[in-house]
Amino acid sequence: MDAIQLDHVSKIYHVGAIETHALNDISLSIGEGEFTALVGPSGSGKTTLLQLIGCLDKPDSGTVKIKGQDVTRFSANKRADLRRDSIGFVFQFFALVPVLTAYENIELPLLLSGVKPAERRERVMGLLRAVGLEDRAKHRPDQMSGGQQQRVAIARALAPRPVLVLADEPTANLDTANGQQAMEIMERLNKETGTAFVYATHDPRVISYARRVVKMQDGSIIDAGIAA
Amino acid sequence: MLSKLWVLAYRDLWRNSRRTILSMTAVALGLALLIIMNGYIAGVMDESVQNNIRLNTGHIQIRASSYNSDDMSLQWKDLLSEPDQIAARAAALPGVRAAAPVLWAGGMIATINDSTSLQISGIDTTSAFYAPIRDSVVAGDFLAADDRSGILVGERMAKSMNIGVGQDVSLTVVDSDGEADEGIFTVRGLFSTGIPSYDEGTVLMPLSKAQAFARADGRASSIMILLDSQEATDSVAAALQSPDTQVLTWRDLNQAFLQTMEAGLAFYYILDGIVILIVAVIIANTLLMSVFERIREMGILAALGMKGRHLTQMLLLEAAVLGLVGIGVGLALGLSGVAYLTYVGIYIGDIASSAGSGVALGSTIHGRFVPGTFAGISLSTLVIVMLSALYPAWYAAHLEPVAALRG
Question: Which chain A residue shows the shortest CA-CA distance from B402?
């Protein structure tokens, strides 16, 4: 079964009287365990597509299925449950909760899922080890570098053991070395956990990590690529 | 989950510590103001009523059915004909500390240089009812029951008329036959109760002398009854009912003052409302600003699967922390203020004497601890703080994740 299935998905934004067709009749399947890059210039619809896949927004037409479930008909609460249990997010701007430590940020989705304390601790410490930040467990975001914050965000995205992780320009705010490190961690965890990763980028160095590249332009997919 | 929401709420509050402290200060000062204001009003009301009971009205009075206290009639039909028997029956009831006949007459006091109108009270000088007067004698002696020519005068009146102990003064009264009678009396002592309206307008003499002077023939205007406990008023009053008399409780006797105070209280209730409203606006503003500053963060929390109700809980917890800390500080400040008012008081000098004879306030007014009222105000403040957090919480709960992530 595909992890994600999009059928004839369109999304239009209305700003005043102006209509912007962000996505035009998109159909796309992403299998379990894929490591896929969505590439295209700014305004091509990458972020909108990630938001629809991530159940953060609803399409104006078409269907989005996650593990076979049509999520376009889900209520806000059910979509929140799906995000909590099945989808991890990594954002361009790191997006950690500033008042929580690295440990607490990774623990947060597990608390929302009702995971027992002992298992929570085991999973959080395991993820901190996996991203090489065991010694930063008690640090708050403002006490860590951008690269470290993004690694915490990757660990947080994987904490609930999701079906897929969506990353929107995950290296855009990182220098080359930190960007490379973040991509290597994502690639390694994709292989270790079998979680599908879909990330948006227009950086050729970041695209090179992908085993499948989906090319977008003006709200349409111009090349769906082939899963390696 | 709730414990983590507490952590989030608490830490979020201290992101902008200055704003949080100012908001808590607003709650604290608002509550402190309300507590002090209500403690002060309760003190003034209670002090005035208790002073009136102690010096003027007692807890209960028995009068002839036709007696009207406004004109202090001395006509026999308006007086009690067997006051001693009535007083003895009242004194025998359980819960009655003292029961004493009194005769009131309007009159005038005059010296060579000055004169003024006043109330003459013929009192049972041996009754425990007059212990407060006995204790407040500041010069000379209290009256003996068989003193046929002595009077007690308030120190303030004595000063204003330049009267001293041992001095003779002229008293004039319109007697029960409607004729003016004049007598020369000697000032035996001066009293100072601390209640200007009483000390400026009252002359006391033994009951038997007053009855003779006013030609009341052993009659009395009223039986003054003092109880061990104010709470027993209604039961004792019920036991004293009889067809030929009227039985008045301290509430009836202080009705004008109580009604005036209750009307005045409406103003204070409005003030209470304004203060609470200001606190509510400040809290709502603080939380709304806090939500606006964290819109993107709330989008992140929503992306992680946090539901609207969790965001609502988080904001309400922030409001609860703001409210509870503010209320704690406000209670400490307010109770300190009430303690000062209660044990030290505010000196108001002669202001009370110009407020009328119904207001029996001394030159220093005191507050009073009213725990029920203070608890009610504190609870109301907490409820208002929580209510004022509802809109920011609702706003946060209804943020669209995508819009929130854009900030």
Answer: A56
Asked if the structure places residue A36 within a domain, the reply is yes
The conformational region for residue B273 under phi > 0 = left, psi -120 to 50 = alpha, else beta, is alpha
Å between B388 CA and nearest CA of chain A? 24
- pLDDT value of position A181: 92
Look-up of token digits 């690295």: A102
How many domains does the structure of chain B reveal? 2
Structural domain that includes position B307? 2-52+257-406
Checking ipTM against 0.90, whether it exceeds it is no
Yes or no, beta carbons of A99 and B303 under 8 Å apart = no
Q: Which of A54, A80, A97 sits opposite B300 (nearest CB)?
A: A97
Does B11 sit within 8 Å of A84, measured CB to CB? Answer: no
Q: Convert the pLDDT of each residue in A186-215 to its tens digit.
A: 999 999 999 999 999 988 899 999 999 999
pTM higher than 0.80:
no
A-chain CB neighbours of B300 within 8 Å are 89, 91, 95-97
- Give pLDDT tens digits for B2-26: 677 888 888 888 888 888 899 899 8
Q: For residues B210 and B214, give the distance between their C-alpha atoms in angstroms, rounded to a whole number.
A: 6
User: How many structural domains does chain A have?
Assistant: 1
